[in-house]
Design a protein that fits this description.
Length: 224
Amino acid sequence: MERKDKDYLTTKQNPCIRELAMQKGLSFPSDSELLMLILGSGTRNVPVEEMARRSLDVIRECPPEDVVGKLGGISGMGMSRALAVAAALELGRRMRGCLRAVVNRPCEIIPYVQHYAMERKEHFVCVSLNGAHEILNIRVVSVGTTDRAIIHPREVLAEPVSEHASAVICCHNHPFGPCLPSGADRAATRVLKDSSEILGITFLDHIILSRDEYFSFLEHGLLD
């Protein structure tokens, strides 16, 4: 009976995600859906969607050295799955570090952040770059509601400062509605640009993402 339950969780909950990933590539699934693909199945008491959501919370909130232990403490996870998820994260960090992708134009960052457009809540993301415009890091600064993410310059710029970044590109997604800046988006962009200049960091662009398009403050002349 237990084996039957496990098979149900494996085969019934993930086929659409697997098929879409195969058709559209691994940049298409959301972060939670990628974790569901790694985990494969849930348990009788913890569906794989819930396990993936809890795992994502741990990954975003914990320092790297604590991730394995925290993941292992999630109900139904077990140490093997915790290690598998942590190993996937470490491989991603190593590959990203080796590539050191160069961003010649701000819009070239879009392939690296496009997957946030699939999220159902607003995610505010900061990309830090060195003097050669190589990507140093891409991090989620804030997760908000379906129509807003609350940010503060110190939260956005703290890590770029510690990394000695020369420039930043900020991005956020619009889960619903048009891919156009709101009044709050414009105000936040002005504050972030001014704060960056005070710190000696070039604010290259603020990009808004949706599933089908993007809006660049730089390309629309809104950073002057």
